[in-house]
Each structure stands twice: as C-alpha cells, then as structure tokens.
Amino acid sequence: MREAVKTVGMVLAGADIVCFVLLLSKAVRKISGLSGVKGIIAGLGGAAAFTAFMLFMLRDEVVELLMSRPYGACGAYLMILAAIVGAFMLTREKKERLTIEQLDELEGSEFENVCAGILLDRGFTDIELTKASGDFGVDILAVYEGQIYGIQCKRYSSRLDSKPVQEVAAGVTYYGCDVGAVMTNSTLTPHAAELAEAAGIEVWDRDTLTEWLEEAE
Known about the structure:
Blueprint: H1 2-21, H2 26-32, H3 36-57, H4 60-68, H5 70-94, H6 100-104, H7 108-121, E1 125-129, E2 140-144, E3 147-154, H8 163-175, E4 179-184, H9 190-199, E5 201-204, H10 206-215
Parallel strand pairs: 3-4, 4-5
Antiparallel strand pairs: 1-2, 2-3
Helix pairs in contact: 1-3, 8-9
C-alpha cells in the first residue's frame, strides 16, 4: 500500500511538472494567456513549486498519514486542484483585451500609453515616453534584444504619408537609436512604405497591431 501511494504521488507530481513546463512552449503560453518572461517564470516556478510539494508529500511520515486517511487526502488534492483551476478561469474571465477598433477611438497621448503597454507585453524593456512637445519625431524609446528603438506613434483615421517616416528617421539619429519604427492604427501610403523600406524604418501598422492585440495576455 505504501508503495502504491508513493507511485501515485510520483505520477501526479510528474503530471503537474509536465503541465507547468509546457507553459514554456509559445503555443501553450498563447492559449493560456501567458507570454514572454511571465510565461517562462510561470512554467519554471510552477514546476519547482510542485516538485517541492510532492517531495514533501512523499516523506515516510506524510505517506503514513495519507494511508490512514486516503479519502481525505484525495479530497484535499482535488480541492487544491479545483482552486488552482478556478483562480485561472477567474483571471481569464476578468481579462479584457483591447481591440484595434478601441485604439481608433483614443486620443494621441492615450494611444502612446497603450502602445507602450503593447511593447511591454511584446518583451520590450526600458520603455520611456518622450516629452509631448519637441520630441524630435520619437514618442517612445525602448530596448529589445539589446537594441534601442525609437518609435513614433500615430493614431490616424487615414493613411499615413511619408512625414512620420522622415521624422522618426531624424529622431533615431538624435536619440542615438539602433532602430526606428512607426507604430500606427492605420496603414502607410505606397510612397511612405517605400521610403520606410529604403530608410530601414520598421512599420508596425494596423495589421501588425491587430495581431499583437490578439496575442496580448
């Protein structure tokens, strides 16, 4: 009986660990609503916590206790599992994801703040909003994979011409950035898109933001 309890405990521990480690997979993190560093921490932290918990549960004195109260032990485990699942579902229900249509209704400064949040979710760090006036064509400074990005945010109801591209290209030089980008809820005119490609300016347009919002946690 004792060996059976230990075997069951080891199987449960293994299953719990596998479930949390699977959170390291990008696909699973996307489905579960976790992403980037948070998803990795959740996977590793969860695996470590359950490993420690099950090692404690497999100690001889604990096994003896479980053997003396098998139904209570099963009930306690199921209650813990239900609490975890319930907390997860509650978090998912409370989560309200922004849509591209909601971005269309924002004011300029609000749009910049939301853009900063989107970048944070995408794994950018050291995010800084520049001053509202005299920003030299860059609204947000951020770091991604060791490179400094200078980003101009444009909430626009019509297609963007080449002016934002020209401005951010100049701002990249002023701020000493490695990469320049235009982040917009709209799209660029063919001429502006051609200029951006020639100048090496990344374009995160309506399609890009729609995809990022769908992937956001």
